[in-house]
Design goal:
Length: 135
């Protein structure tokens, strides 16, 4: 019985560490995106805290002294921040496709169609459904 409980505890610990690892990846990605303009991690963390309500100290901790486990709400906040960034990038991509369509690019029409296909695939993965034909 004790061995079985130890095995279950190890499995739980392994799963918790996997969430921490994923949280570390998400935090680093968010820091990289946010610090792209000025290459200043502290300012990036401050902006991320203002935008998404994620404590700047969390980013520092995940980078330099990761915890053994992470709270579900913190993990979800990181996921939400990534989804917001992805949604913003999709809007930019939709705008660029619309500009290309409006410019009537002629011989490069195949590129625009491929871009729309990729956009629809990404939106489907994110649960937003396919883009409308007007984009």
């Amino acid at each position: 019985m004790v061995c079985k409980m130890r095995l279950q505890m190890k499995e739980i610990a392994m799963r918790a560490s996997a969430y921490v690892d994923r949280a570390r990846e998400m935090a680093r990605f968010l820091e990289r995106i946010e610090s792209a303009e000025d290459d200043d991690l502290e300012k990036a963390r401050t902006r991320l805290q203002a935008k998404y309500g994620i404590a700047g100290s969390l980013f520092h901790a995940l980078r330099y002294r990761p915890p053994k486990q992470i709270a579900v709400d913190v993990y979800n906040d990181l996921c939400s921040a990534l989804e917001d960034i992805a949604a913003a990038q999709i809007r930019i991509f939709e705008h660029e496709i619309a500009k290309a369509r409006a410019a009537r690019i002629g011989p490069r029409e195949d590129v625009v169609r491929k871009a729309e296909t990729v956009l629809n695939e990404v939106k489907a993965l994110m649960g937003d459904g396919p883009a409308s034909d007007g984009n």
